[in-house]
Amino acid sequence: MLILKPEIRSPMWQHTIDSIENYINSVHSLNVAPDLNVEDVRNMFQAMDFETPMDPIAAIDFAVHGFKNYQTHTPHRRYFGLFNPAPSTMGIVADSLVAAFNPQLAAWSHNPFAVELEQHLIRMFGVRFGYDPSAMDGTFTSGGAEANHTAVLTALTDIFPEFARKGLRGLSSQPVFYGSTESHHSFVKASRFCGLGTEAHRRIEVNDDLQMDLSILKEQIRKDKENGFVPFLIVGTGGTTNAGVVDPLTDLADLAAEQGLWFHVDAAWGGAAVLVPELKSVLKGIERSDSITFDSHKWLSVPNAAGMFLTKHPTILDQTCHIEAEYVPKDSEGLGVTDPLSHSLQWSRRMIGLKVFLSLAVAGWKGYENTIRHQTEMGNLLRQELQKADWKVVNPTILPVICFVDAKPMQNPNQYYADILSEVLSSGKVWISTTQLGGTRSVLRACITNVLTDADDIRILIHELDGARQKIRGTL
Ligand SMILES: *Cc1c(COP(=O)(O)O)cnc(C)c1O
Description:
Layout: H1 6-26, H2 38-44, H3 56-69, H4 89-101, H5 112-128, E1 137-141, H6 144-159, H7 163-166, E2 175-180, H8 186-193, E3 201-204, H9 214-226, E4 230-237, H10 249-259, E5 262-266, E6 291-295, E7 307-311, H11 316-321, H12 354-388, E8 391-393, E9 401-406, H13 413-426, E10 433-437, E11 441-447, H14 455-475
Parallel strand pairs: 2-3, 2-4, 4-5, 5-6
Antiparallel strand pairs: 1-7, 6-7, 8-9, 9-11, 10-11
Helix pairs in contact: 1-3, 4-12, 6-8, 12-14, 13-14
Pyridoxal-5'-phosphate binds near residues 145, 295 and 307.
């Protein structure tokens, strides 16, 4: 029953492919965000008690129906959302191949092809970020959160050689690290998961441009040292989730070097800017980092999830993750190769890199350069159109995340933008969100996330926004 017979498989594959093809072609005419009613979703599972085996085609249809009706359609061209793109076609193919061949990325000898493919990609991306491919290392991760967690762990392991054996309690003073108040919340988790505690994560205020404020950072480091804490890591963000803002990476690199700290750049989304010559300089300084987080399931549009952790320290991942286990095959000993289980928290690991590899192989660097440029241009167009329609863009970035407010100041901005948002979303035609900049300023946020988004989509968004504004203002 688990491995179906060839005569059943064949039409079933075809049905699966047809369902995928149908979704890809029709998603843009669906409501971007369908009504998400808890009861309705749960009711779908009422009859699913697994007592009677189901016909495979009916089972597939059940899943397709569920996805179609009960998800925010992130592959929609007017999903102006949270870095969740439409998955690349080759990425979908890759994930199917991976499921079928089921490579086990624990020991090198179980899948030299998969391991070397991923290592090749890690080095190729390292080069793009300005690392020396012969003096670096890295691993694919479950996402940016794991990559950031890895950064904190490797930094601890590097700066405190006794940490790996004795843990934090073996250290004579409390280690602390720095990121801005706009840095990703995965660092809050990482500080807990590493046993540091959230107080060890110093969240430094941002300046008017939403970048980590350098003078506040310096002052905090000085104070921490004076009070017996031990700084070990500075995190710069290369494109914040909220507003696409890049911290002053070169200054942070200088400061980290001067203070002897690990310098990590979280470029989960914004990192893709290095693939476009005229955007690359926005990340200047990233080449001086000790490590980088980069998510290819964001701006490289591969299916969830394909994070990367890259580091300039060729042995630090081994120092952090290496183990000896009797049952792990030893056939790769002496070959100068890496067992993936010594490079991350994960053990039996799914192959993550193939969806990046096949997407890149077919698009080429040039293909990616063109799509990222196109999306950046659409971001610029959206800024212009918003300004023309009396909205005010408030985040300083050239990357296509646009935070904006009504040009006319409003009494109760929290409520006002929440009302505009719910009105816009109820149309089903577009998806945007609200956020708070610097933790205080309510704004609307739209990010060009889809490679297909074009000028017509931008116009539809503006139209929906204007309609919502008129309606809400009319009721004030
Ligand atoms: C998305 C994001 C993360 C988290 O990555 P996941 O892949 O969702 O785990 C971390 N940092 C930044 C800047 C991000 O945009």
